[in-house]
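Technical note accompanying the year-one report. For the benefit of new consortium partners, we illustrate the data format agreed upon in the data management plan: each record pairs a sequence with a structure-token string. No post-processing was applied to the example shown here.
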Amino acid sequence: MPVSRHIGLVWLLTWIAGICAAAIGRAEVRPQPNLLLITADNLGYGDLRCYNPESSQRTPHLNRLARQGARLTDFYAASPTCTVSRASLLTGRIPQRHGLTEQLAGVKGNYGVGLNPREVLIPQVLKQAPNPYATGCFGKWNIGFAPGSRPTERGFDRFIGHASGNLDYYRHVYRGRHDLYNGTQELHREGEYSTEIFAEAAIEFIRRHSRQRRPWFCYVPFNAPHFPSAANKRPGEPNIWQAPDWAFRACGLSPQESDPERRYRAVVYALDKAIGDLLKVLDEEGVADNTFVFFMSDNGAFRLGRRGLDVGINDPLRSGGVTCWEGGIRVAALARWPGHITPG
């Protein structure tokens, strides 16, 4: 049944702490569980049909995940902004404790120190297990990218993603600066859809370490479905929602569709397909039963009245991202761990 208590982010960190304790304390008894942590970017509470049966979004894989595990109906992010929510997620600490209390802004902010380097992140803890975890991050970082602050310098073995809070889905540009990296080096894959790049990299990581029978922690912070930004576009280029042609067609739409809400539908569908591919590889590699899967949105969809941009739905909650109303901090969250979490 749906989990309806106000347990918020503490629920997730309690589970992870328990998993790590089990791995460290009883490694000789059972295999250390794998951890797959997936976040969406500004996804609305009411965008998923498993939360809102009247939603126009097609999300079959997330709906199936909800049936296979627990659907958290009163799950709260630590902040209504991307940077702060992610810093709390990775540290297990509230913003007042870890000190990163504001969204990183602009190139200077996103490429600065960000989160205090003394803060300990989940991957650093998992490296202390008897059989140290392989750790990978694939997607949006957004907590500081100065030397010493980058993912591969903070416990992750592998990183493919971007430093900033948002980027062009195909050109991988943030405010005129190329913003896609493999580790600490720029990665040029212009013309490829970012959601697919991150999913493919995560799948390769999962396959490799599952076949090596090494426990792994895979953090996949997708940039979808974050709204597009005019600052990331070429002069004269329309600031519209971006998705692959196949995603539009799967939603019964033309890639030339002009309605923002319908274009958003294709963005969410492409995200759901990527998540489905991640879940599929767990089955293919025979590790689904030994993998704790957690999905959440970093905060609610923005509802600031910006035409063509604020199309995500937080119903029945009030307002949205960057506000502390329910629509900003109460988010969709799903958990699955066969044999440990009762389905449904």
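Partners are asked to follow this layout when depositing records. The domain at 8-336 is CATH 3.40.720.10 (Alkaline Phosphatase, subunit A).
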